[in-house]
Amino acid sequence: MVTRTRRAGYTLLETMLTVAIVGILFAIGAKLMIQANNYFVFNKTRGDLQGQARSAMYIMTREIRQAVSSSIVLDQLAGQPYWSRITFNKLDGTTEKFEQCGTSLWIIKGVHVDTMTTHVQYMAFTFPRTDDMTIISVSMTLQEATYDNKTKALHMASEQVQVMN
Hints:
Structural class: alpha+beta
Shape: rod-shaped
Largest sheet: 5 strands, antiparallel
Radius of gyration: 29 Å
Oligomer: single chain
């Protein structure tokens, strides 16, 4: 009677198959992790830009509504897009400005300057109707770098503001 003895250990073929399978899983896993990270960064950037755009639009529309319509001036700083600055007076006599300077959006109340956002790509204030100078259209595009030299741009749809004074 022949008895077989059990040998402990793995054969060369089993070891090679295990290494190949683990290598494939790592290659696929690395690509999936990179894609998941890029997706996370992209969505985080979009959320940040939306939050900045909403808060800037809220403040601008609230302040512009309180302007004296005869005091509104639309112009630009040198080297900035056309109509990227609005200057107006309020009923209490204070002067306010919203202006794009480079990629920053500033609110200027008298001599006090605050930065509302630093990701402005395009800013425009226009009169959408020539027969009604109490309506102002506000349009803004924000842009921020994401990954691999790519950028995410968000255009905040033009919002029309009715000046109340």
